[in-house]
Amino acid sequence: MSVDIAVVGGGPSGLFAALGLIRAFEGLTVKVYERAQSYRECGAGITLDVNGMKALRAVDEELYAKFQSTVVTDVSQMQSFDQHGEPIGDRSTVSMKTIIDNIKQKTGVGMGMIGWFDIQQMIFDALPEGTVEFGHAFTDLAEEADGLSLTFENKPPVKAKYMVGADGYFSPVREILHHDGPPEFTDTVMWRARFPWKPDSGLPKGPDFVHSFSGGRLQGLVYGLPGDVVCWILSAPVDLCEAQGVEYDQAQHSRSKQRRQISSYQNADEGQGLSAHTRCLKVAEIAAPQMQELVKLTDPGAIIEHGLFVRQAGELDKYAETGWGKGRITLIGDAAHPMRPTGQGMNTALEDGAVLAWHLQHGGLCEEAMRAFERERIPRVKSMAEQEYARGATAYKEDARAALDRVKTLPMSEQDFSDFNLSFHPSTLMDSWPTVIELTFWRGFVVVAPTLFDPPLAFAAA
Ligand SMILES: Cc1cc2nc3c(=O)[nH]c(=O)nc-3n(C[C@H](O)[C@H](O)[C@H](O)COP(=O)(O)OP(=O)(O)OC[C@H]3O[C@@H](n4cnc5c(N)ncnc54)[C@H](O)[C@@H]3O)c2cc1C
């Protein structure tokens, strides 16, 4: 099998980059190689922010419109609770709709909440059939004269001219490029779940509410998603988990074994003995009663557990000049810049896809265009990672009100961060698609499409 671009990892970043590249070039063969056998409905929800929405629009206007009409924009019940389940402050009657409408007026783009799984599925559905090859666990690669040879567990090798590593937190592709080991464990464990609304959940039906739980060094969040789905997130420092009899072996979840990494997302129970549900229940014993009840009510199979791993924003400085890729290989999403999951991991992953596709469309399918993409991304994702790190790290306080006050300790004020976020202006991909240079190169000559590349026009024998 030979492809122009092999994307390793079929999470949101890999799928979206593939979509961008397919839109950017006529006749490009792009395949996504995903380790999982199929997708399963899991994860919680995410705010698809203005920057993520802009990225979607820059690549695919139709898909963007679908997201715009799917996301939840009208949350009218927002309430914070402490670890005992007591409300903190008044129930906010601020309508999210007013806030989102204002943002839309300012930026021309809306935003809203949606399930993590729904994002993945909607991008998958927008791809040409057969783009994603499931059951392909990437193991290694070799450089050859005219490209790369990728190997997979129990599957035939694939030849690719270029490669995108979109394989998440413990990216095997990154490990091959940089040998820099797994990201840093933040001593925090997180559980996420989603399920169809149940009358005995005690929650309103419909995606009209957000309940947050702070204090007792725990963080919880419960909210509705489109389609009467409820999702929740519970996270706790590892010492608190241990005090509840729940061990978390970070090495087990980040070790490299013949370049095959364990992702605790897909295999929440792997190596941990007890199921994710049982473990979460034990930790939930010290959470607010409402959270405890929800965990009890959740189908055990619907819960995923994972440790929170990050790379410190400062690590990106190393790559400011060289870019974080090498040769014919680039990285995107969590493989390139894993950050605390406070909202921007997914949005920056979508940014990556739009910016990568644009750079390759304008610079041509070449290493230099990949480096230009990386150099452009580094300052932005660095600022994002700094902000998200501080936002997440200061959340686990004993006192619930102090935990809520963490916004005062962030590197950027909320307003500055919002301005920074809105300052993302991806260029829309061109409609007149260039011919794929490398595709024709393989056949013995190079064709550079007129007006799209510099030099503007070249026909050369290879
Ligand atoms: C199952 C799951 C549920 C999640 N739920 C949420 C959520 O509810 N809220 C939230 O904020 N974030 C969630 N995340 C994290 C979030 O997706 C990422 O932080 C962010 O969206 C960046 O996405 P990504 O595509 O770069 O990485 P990921 O979403 O981690 O995707 C990486 C993909 O690469 C695949 N992969 C890994 N190794 C290999 C290999 N060797 N060969 C081939 N494929 C490989 C993985 O199976 C995965 O599909 C979830 C991630 C996963 C995997």
Write up what this structure looks like.
The chain has 462 residues and is of the alpha/beta class. The chain has one domain (2-422): FAD/NAD(P)-binding domain. It contains 15 helices and 20 strands. The two termini are 23 Å apart. The model is unreliable at 256-273 and 439-462 (pLDDT under 50). The structure holds flavin-adenine dinucleotide (FAD). Residues 8-14, 33-36, 42-44, 46, 116, 136-138, 166-169, 172, 192, 263, 265-266, 304, 333-335, 341, 345-346, 349 line the site of flavin-adenine dinucleotide. Keywords: Monooxygenase, Oxidoreductase. Residues 3-180, 316-385 form the FAD-binding domain.
List keywords for this structure.
monooxygenase activity; seven-stranded mixed beta sheet; 462 residues; binds flavin-adenine dinucleotide; alpha/beta; FAD/NAD(P)-binding domain; globular; oxidoreductase
